[in-house]
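Student:
Attend to each token:
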Amino acid sequence: MFDKWIVVSDMDGTLLNHHDYKVQAALPMLDQLEKAGIPVVFNTSKTFSELKDWVTLLNNKHPFIVENGSAIYIPENYFPQGFLTQQTSNVKHEGEYQVIVTGIEIQSIQNYLKTVKPDAIDFTQCSLQQAMDITGLTEKDAAAAQTRQFSVPLMFDDDMKQQNFGEQAKQHGFGILKGGRFLHVLGTCDKGSSMQILKNLYAGCYQKTYAMIVLGDSQNDVAMLQQADIPVVVKSPSSKSIELDHPATIETQNEAPEGWVEGVISALTNSRLKRDN
């Protein structure tokens, strides 16, 4: 038995439509969850610059996790004063946020890439126009996507080259995650481990037990989906690559954002049935 839910969600292809980034259909459910006191935590490959715009647009005042688990951003005064510093020494202040860095700074990754010179498009180094063409983002959003602090997305045109590079990078101590479009090079962190850190902070602060509904759509969401109480795989062009060993897995019939709403409703309905039995 548990006291409260946390909803943890990927963004691209999960909450936002993979093709056009539409989100309108999810707005009423986001509002319902907020009114019900269920925090929605975004856990994404997006950068801080990108996600800050989205949390503002969606009026989300909860913590969020960026760059595939590399850093947790917690609004100032979200937890009682002094609580975070009591829990961890790895907290820094950045504007209106307290930040727990779980990954590595991007300079270490770039130094490695300069040495091995992978045959791939480096999203942080390509032109703004190329970044727009690859992602379909506007100029403003593509520029924000390139402002990475903890990871480098690489785009390969050959699966074998990608596989060989990934194995080599792992041997040199880097983390490798395959997303919808990119192979992400980062520290030895992932969405699942950072999600658990945040869950423990909630539990420690409020002395309650939390269960997690986790929504994702691609391979780089597996670490967090596998650790969910109820994992929801939202249908997308990337979702077929997901293989979970979890008895409570829900797979949606619709793509985002409708599929996101479908998944949340199904998870909450199933949990009520189980708790009533």
